[in-house]
Amino acid sequence: MLNVTKTLADFVTAVRYEDLPIEAIERAKPLILDCLGAAVAGTTSPIGQITVNLGRETASGRDATVIGADYATSVTSAAFINSTLAHALDIDDTAAGTVAHPSAPILPALFALAEKNSCSARTFLTAYVTGLEVFYRIALASEDQMGGWHRTSIFGALAAAAASARLLSLTAEQTSTAIGISASLASGIQANFGTMTKAIQVGNAGRSGVVAALLARKECTAQQDSLGDPAGFGLAFYAGQFDTQKIISGLGKPFNIIFPGIGVKIYPCCGLTHAPADIALNLVRTYDISPDQVEEIIVYGEELWPQVLVYHRPETGYQGKYSLEYVIAAAILDREITQHTFTDEKVRRPKIQALLGKITNHVRPDSEWKSLRIHPWNHCSEVIVRLKGGTTYSGTAPCARGYPDLPLTTQEILEKFRNCARPTLPEQNIELIAERALILEAQATVADLISLTRVPVTGKI
């Protein structure tokens, strides 16, 4: 009988830097920079402040950098804190076709382990690309089910474990063990979307991956086919509706970082709101629409919307990130969507509340988006703005800007990183991080890169 986890572990342990296509390496480096920027920016958020301060109070060891802070801590604590930071603003990347964020749980785990163990930059890149592949494959097997689980944190724990195992050069058996341990540590519920705990769930995934790999290295035991066992991961999380063949069929052919690819987010809110936000911002800027002119705004989207965008009348900034109505209202009123859009004060503005009542969203069957969709996983949208005088403006989008079919350039990702980092890091550090990340394969280790994300003791945190 085929052992699914062993097949995956054999793949993970066999991948070498020399096996990676140049395109995979070139795509990985801007994504690493983007994740570092998201984590640095995350320190300015409420949950970022809470997590960093708690980490300082409970710090043990100085093996790994806490991003955007003035201290180092243990490997497991750094993985937890930095993965939380990377997802704190919901501006971290997303893997096409997964409805989930891969880099936030994977990269902080790798940075923590690599810094302590002086791993080479090329080994780091290999582990990252391999971890992305594991994340994508497990997501693919779940067949788009939500099931009440936070997909990022569930898949992220297993992917971080596999990536960490590759970084530490564990055997295939140890890698299977790490995956088995992480399957038991994986957690995170969708009910916590729109709260600070959503980011904490991703922090737990990053830490779980590190813990699983370290336990496996010390000969802890676990079920050797946690993915394929009838009583394993698929049954526990998806009631047996889990196609394990999708995990192992065609691994690395191509690597998912190449296709379907990874989307870089522009706005710090749920990715399902991004295409309608792009449209609304374009309409309001092109036609100089003022909120007082608006009679009605109708937004059309896909069948997945009602499962995720659950806050129709948000009361907090965190809820606003999962409110399609709020994102559209903010786009119309402010003509921009930034980190500062999602504060309690901004959500509660009277003008916003008035606009919310004019916005309705409607789901169209996925079959009706076929003519607009470039690929079946794209999140399409249409926005119609009707003014009081009878004029109507509308627009459509096959997906959001930044996603694989409408990708950002490396220069645009670099500018996003700078904007994320400027409130926290010195300008010199920002430019050195960017420079080194974009030629990461030429660096001896990643220790110098991650150490540049620390702030002076007199810094902001």
Mind explaining what this structure looks like?
It is a single chain. The chain is α+β, with helices and mostly antiparallel strands and 461 residues long. The chain folds into two domains: 4-263, Orthogonal Bundle (2-methylcitrate dehydratase PrpD), CATH 1.10.4100; 271-397, 2-methylcitrate dehydratase PrpD (60s Ribosomal Protein L30, Chain: A, 2-Layer Sandwich), CATH 3.30.1330.120. It is 49% helix and 7% strand. It is built from 20 helices and eight strands. It has helices at residues 4-14, 22-42, 46-57, 75-88, 103-117, 121-141, 151-167, 172-185, 197-217, 233-238, 245-248, 274-286, 305-308, 317-320, 324-334, 344-347, 350-356, 410-421, 427-437, 447-451, and strands spanning 64-65, 72-73, 94-95, 262-263, 294-301, 359-363, 381-387, 392-397. A hairpin with a 4-residue loop joins strand 7 (381-387) and strand 8 (392-397). The longest helix is centred in the N-terminal third of the chain and has 21 residues, at 22-42.
